[in-house]
Amino acid sequence: MTGYGKATTELADKKINIEIKSLNSKALDLNTRIAPIYREKEIDIRNEVSKSLERGKVDFCMWVEKKDSAEAAVTINKGLLKSYYNQIVDASQSLDIALPTDWFTTLLRMPEVMSKPEVQDLSEEEWNDAHAVVKEAISQLVDFRKQEGMALEQKFRENISRIQSLLDSVEPYEKERVEKIRERITEALEKTICVDYDKNRLEQELIYYIEKLDINEEKQRLTNHLKYFINTMESDSGQGKKLGFIAQEMGREINTLGSKSNHAGMQKIVVQMKDELEQIKEQILNVL
C-alpha cells in the first residue's frame, strides 16, 4: 500500500501541483488539503482517489503557485487607512488621549485595511486541466504500488518455498523419533524398573503414544495452506486481508507441529518455519 505520486500542470497565470502518498491502513483513510479555488470539487477529488485506491492511509495535497506574485499579494486600502488615521487624531484631541507611537502597527490592524484579492470563480476549462493532473498523480502512485507489489510477490514466493522445503525436511526425523520413543520406553522398563512386560501390550501403548504425536494431518493442512496462499496471491487484487487470514492458519499448523515434535531437530525446523512466516506477516500489511 506504500506509494507516492506527484504531478504538475501550468496554466496561463498559475501552476497546479498535486502530491499524493499512501501508507498502510486496514481501510481507505483519506486526508485532503486542497487550494481554496478547488474546494468545491473536493467530493469529485475524493471519488477519483477512492476509485483507484482501495486501502491505505492516503494524504492528498493540491496547491497553486501564482506566476504573478503581485496579483496574489495582500493590498492595503489607502483611503480607509487615511480615514482611520484622521478619526484617531480627532479622538485623541477630543478625549485628551495620547496618540499611538507606532502608527503602522495600529492602523494595519484596523478592520478591512488589509484585504486579499477576490477569489476567482473556477471555470470548467480550468477544472478539466486540474482534474487531469489529479488523475496523473494518482496514476503515478498506483504504478509505484505495483512495483512494490511485484517485489513483495517475489519475496512471498521465496518465503513459501522455504517453508515447504523445511516441512519436507521433517520426514526423516519422524521415523527417527518413533524409534527413539520405542528405545526409551523399552530401556526404562528393562533397566530402570527391572520387570518383565507384555510385549504386545507395549506395542499397543506405543501405537497410542505415537498416534498422539502424529503430525501427518498438520503437514497436509500446512501444505494446503501454502498452495492456497500462492493461488490467492495470483488471483485478482484486493486480497490482502485474505492472505492475512491464510497466514494465521499457517501459524496454527506450525505451532501444532512444534508442540508435537518432541525432537530437537524437528523443533529447530519449526523455529525456522516460524521465522519465515513472521517475515510474511510483517509484509502482508503492505498488500491491498
Record the strand order, biggest sheet: 1-2-4-3
Beta fraction of the residues?
Answer: 5-15%
Rounded to an integer, what's the Rg over CA atoms? 36 Å
State the secondary-structure class. alpha+beta
Number of domains: 3
Global shape: elongated
Structure annotation, total helices: 10
Q: What's the order of the H and E elements? A: EEEHEHEHHEHHHHHH
The first-to-last residue Cα distance is 6 Å
Please report the total strand number as a whole number.
6
Uncertain spans: none
How would you describe the overall organization of this protein?
With 288 residues, this protein is an alpha+beta fold. It has three domains: 3-68 and 126-143, Ribosomal Protein S5, domain 2 (2-Layer Sandwich), CATH 3.30.230; 75-115, no CATH class; 149-284, no CATH class. Helices cover 64% and strands 14% of the residues. The chain contains ten helices and six strands; from the N terminus they run E-E-E-H-E-H-E-H-H-E-H-H-H-H-H-H. The protein has helices spanning 42-52, 69-72, 78-95, 103-108, 124-168, 171-193, 199-212, 216-234, 240-261, 264-284; strands at 3-10, 14-23, 28-34, 56-66, 75-76, 114-115. The strands form two sheets. A four-stranded mixed sheet has the order 1-2-4-3. Strands 5-6 form a two-stranded antiparallel ribbon. Helix 1 (42-52) links the parallel strand 3 (28-34) and strand 4. It is elongated, with a radius of gyration of 36 Å.
